[in-house]
Design brief:
The complex is a heterodimer of chains A (113) and B (114).
Chain A: E1 5-7, E2 10-13, E3 19-24, E4 31-38, E5 42-50, E6 53-57, E7 64-68, E8 74-78, E9 87-94, E10 102-104, E11 108-112
Parallel strand pairs in A: 2-11
Antiparallel strand pairs in A: 1-3, 3-8, 4-5, 4-9, 5-6, 7-8, 9-10, 9-11
Chain B: E1 10-14, E2 19-24, E3 32-38, E4 45-51, E5 56-58, E6 62-67, E7 72-77, E8 86-93, E9 103-104, E10 108-113
The chains are: A mainly beta (113), B mainly beta (114).
Chain lengths: 113, 114
């Protein structure tokens, strides 16, 4: 079974631009969560989508948004990019049935200049 | 590696020794805990999990211990190998793991000397 895939793997953007990142979960997984990883703040939860609905949300500004499609693929969008948005963005998928472990993709490295 | 913090606690062990990585969690309502391993340039990899109704769980070469009284979690790795070198994160959740909002600790860098 294929793992979680994320595209693109690397991205360079300029302040003020917007960016869209994509995540394809493991086949059959309906939950997709997004995390931001930085050296200073570590791994921080952004939001979780389940069956096309946002189920949980972390403490990030409204510039960070996401969505999930009927095939469980998810995208996250960051508008009006700031230098501090430079980070590794990770998505993770989770199966159903009460099993808690999430499986992470390799991440998208976003650099804002 | 590019995905680790600049000032992570570091644990250095000799190959073949046992490793113990500790984690203090924050929310007394958390009822599901999970350990991840992250190698440089990769996403976190699931190691083992435990629910709050247990205080110990064993996997292959790994054991997780949970002390709810002091909100402490530990990961024991037996016969540590060079391939175990990575950053290790604990994470907690207060939905029994049924929902995806994990709260991560800061991480510990494990360095294995051959």
């Amino acid at each position: 079974k294929a793992g979680v895939t994320q595209t693109p793997r690397y991205l360079i953007k300029t302040r003020g631009q917007q960016v869209t990142l994509s995540c394809s979960p493991i086949s059959g997984h309906r939950s997709v969560s997004w995390y931001q990883q930085t050296p200073g703040q570590g791994l921080q939860f952004l939001f979780e989508y389940f069956s096309e609905t946002q189920r949980n949300k972390g403490n990030f500004p409204g510039r960070f948004s996401g969505r999930q499609f009927s095939n469980s693929r998810s995208e996250m969008n960051v508008s009006t990019l700031e230098l501090g948005d430079s980070a590794l963005y990770l998505c993770a998928s989770k199966g159903a049935g009460g099993r808690g472990e999430q499986y992470f993709g390799p991440g998208t490295r976003l650099t804002v200049t | 590696g590019e995905s680790v913090g600049l000032h992570l606690p570091t644990l250095s062990v000799q190959e073949g020794d046992n490793s113990i990585i500790n984690c203090a969690y924050s929310n007394s309502a958390s009822d599901y805990f999970i350990w991840y391993k992250q190698e440089s340039g990769k996403g976190p990899q699931f190691i083992i999990d435990i629910r709050s109704n247990m205080d110990k769980r064993q996997g292959q070469r790994v054991t997780v211990l949970l002390n709810k009284t002091v909100k402490h979690l530990s990961l024991q790795i037996a016969a540590t190998q060079p391939g175990d070198s990575a950053v290790y994160f604990c994470a907690e959740n207060n939905y029994g793991g049924s929902q995806g909002n994990l709260i991560f600790g800061k991480g510990t860098k494990l360095s294995v000397k051959p």
